[in-house]
C-alpha cells in the first residue's frame, strides 16, 4: 500500500472548478488524488489543510526545544514541539507528497512556509554534527519519497528559461528545503494567467489538468511495474 500526503495551502476555499473564486492549486491537488484513488483505491491518503489551519510559526521557545536533546527536554518543550512532531510523522509515513502551493507575491504562502519551518527539524529530518568529516549536515528522511508540487500564478512565464524565471521563488523555495531533508524527486505543474482571466487561463488550466492526468498514470504505472518485478 502506498501512502499519499495531500497538502493544500491556498487561502482560498474550494477549487476553481467549484466556484468562480476558488483555488486553482486545490483544483489540481484534488484532481491528482481523485485520479490516483481511481487507479489505486486501496492506497491511504493523509490530508493536511495548512491554508485553512496554518501551523504555528517558529518561536524562540520552539528553537530552544528543537535543539535540546530529546532525553533532556522538559515537559513544556514537548508541548511546544507537538504540532511539529505530528507534521513530521505524517511526512515520514508518506510515499508521495502532493502539495498545492500557489504563488503569493513571488513565493509560497506564509502558511506553507510555516509548514516547511515545522518539518525541517534537527534530529528528525536532518542531522547535524559540527565535528563530522565533510558536510556537517545530512538528510534523515528515508529515500524513495516523491514530491508533486502543484501551483498557480497570476502572471505567466515563470518556468525555466522564460521571462520571469528569476522572480519565481515558489518551486525553488520548496525544492531546496525538501532536498535538504532528503526528498529530491520532484514533479511540478502550474496554472498561469489567473489575473488575466481570459482564454489563456482556460488553456493553462486544461494543460495543467492534462499534465496531472499524465503524471498520475506515470507514477501509478511505475509502482505497478515495481510490484510486478
TrEMBL record:
Similarity comment: family membership: Belongs to the azoreductase type 1 family.
Chain positions recorded as FMN binding sites: 10, 23-25, 103-106
Reaction(s) catalysed by this chain's protein: N,N-dimethyl-1,4-phenylenediamine + anthranilate + 2 NAD(+) = 2-(4-dimethylaminophenyl)diazenylbenzoate + 2 NADH + 2 H(+); 2 a quinone + NADH + H(+) = 2 a 1,4-benzosemiquinone + NAD(+)
Cofactor remark from the record: Binds 1 FMN per subunit.
Protein name, UniProt field: FMN dependent NADH:quinone oxidoreductase
Record Pfam families: Flavodoxin_2 (PF02525)
E.C. designation(s): 1.6.5.-, 1.7.1.17
Cofactor: FMN
Keywords (A to Z) from UniProt: Flavoprotein, FMN, NAD, Oxidoreductase
Lineage: Bacteria, Pseudomonadati, Pseudomonadota, Alphaproteobacteria, Hyphomicrobiales
Residues annotated as domain Flavodoxin-like fold: 4-205
Molecular function terms, GO-annotated: electron transfer activity; FMN binding; oxidoreductase activity, acting on NAD(P)H as acceptor; oxidoreductase activity, acting on NAD(P)H, quinone or similar compound as acceptor
Subunit record text: Homodimer.
InterPro entries named among the record's database cross-references: Flavodoxin_fold (IPR003680), Flavoprotein-like_sf (IPR029039), FMN-dep_NADH:Q_OxRdtase_AzoR1 (IPR050104), NADH:quinone_OxRdtase_FMN_depd (IPR023048)
Record gene name: azoR
HAMAP family: Azoreductase_type1
Amino acid at each position: 500500500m502506498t501512502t499519499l500526503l495531500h497538502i493544500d495551502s491556498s487561502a482560498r476555499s474550494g477549487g476553481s472548478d467549484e466556484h468562480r473564486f476558488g483555488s486553482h492549486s486545490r483544483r489540481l491537488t484534488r484532481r491528482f488524488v481523485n485520479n490516483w484513488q481511481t487507479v489505486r483505491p486501496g492506497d491511504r491518503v493523509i490530508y493536511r489543510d495548512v491554508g485553512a489551519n496554518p501551523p504555528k510559526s517558529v518561536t524562540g521557545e520552539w528553537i530552544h526545544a528543537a535543539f535540546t536533546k530529546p532525553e533532556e527536554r522538559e515537559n513544556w518543550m514537548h508541548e511546544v514541539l507537538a504540532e511539529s512532531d505530528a507534521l513530521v510523522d505524517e511526512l515520514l509515513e508518506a510515499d508521495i507528497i502532493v502539495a498545492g502551493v500557489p504563488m503569493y507575491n513571488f513565493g509560497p504562502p506564509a502558511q506553507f512556509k510555516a509548514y516547511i519551518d515545522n518539518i525541517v527539524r534537527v534530529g528528525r529530518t536532518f542531522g547535524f554534527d559540527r565535528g563530522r568529516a565533510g558536510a556537517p549536515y545530512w538528510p534523515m528522511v528515508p529515500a524513495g519519497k516523491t514530491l508533486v508540487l502543484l501551483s498557480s500564478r497570476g502572471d505567466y512565464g515563470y518556468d525555466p528559461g522564460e521571462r520571469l524565471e528569476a522572480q519565481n521563488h515558489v518551486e525553488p523555495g520548496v525544492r531546496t528545503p525538501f532536498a535538504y531533508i532528503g526528498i529530491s524527486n520532484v514533479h511540478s505543474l502550474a496554472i498561469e494567467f489567473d489575473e488575466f482571466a481570459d482564454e489563456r487561463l482556460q488553456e493553462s488550466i486544461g494543460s495543467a489538468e492534462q499534465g496531472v492526468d499524465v503524471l498520475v498514470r506515470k507514477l501509478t504505472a511505475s509502482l505497478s511495474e515495481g510490484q510486478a518485478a
